[in-house]
Amino acid sequence: MFKNQLQELAQRSCFNLPSYACIREGPDHAPRFKATVTFNGESFESPGFYPTLRQAEHAAAEVALNELSKRGPSSSLAAKVLDETGIYKNLLQETAHRAGLKLPMYTTIRSGPGHTPTFTCTVELAGRIFTGNPGKTKKQAQKNAAMVAWSELKQREYFLCL
Asked: Which GO MF terms does the UniProt record name (predicted)?
């Protein structure tokens, strides 16, 4: 999932595609891999060694997306595209799953006139409720709520350090 999202981010941002490098260690019957992904001139390394090359590359891509998402939606083109692709919803869901928590629950309210509605969304995760900025579509309101939740939880390093 993370490798695909990083590639999509590169394509939408007109960046070069991510490139992966790998270190292999261990005996032939039980190799271990550590990967580094280079994206838009920056390198991101998997946090440890993994039993397969695919898992190591996936972990490196996850690190890259997590680092880029910390920068916030307005601080770089990459972060803006991350918001547009809905990465924050994916990060919340993936992290909740890995932490053994219930998946995020979105509640969206429509208001305003029928021809120009406004959508406000909250997302509940780990017993906390986060409210995003209103959006012109339900999808955008959900993305906004997910971005608020991810940013707050990341700042507090709540359960996202898994």
From this structure: double-stranded RNA binding
Q: What is the pTM of this model?
A: 0.54
Query: How far is it, in rounded angstroms, from Cα 140 to Cα 110?
Result: 12
Domain boundaries, the chain: 1-85, 100-162
Distance of alpha carbon 31 from alpha carbon 42, whole angstroms: 27
- What pLDDT digit, counting tens, does each position of 43-94 carry? 999 999 999 999 999 999 989 988 887 765 445 555 555 655 567 888 788 7
The CATH fold assigned to 100-162 is: Double Stranded RNA Binding Domain (3.30.160)
CATH topology of domain 1-85: Double Stranded RNA Binding Domain (3.30.160)
Cα gap 13→80, rounded to integer Å:
9
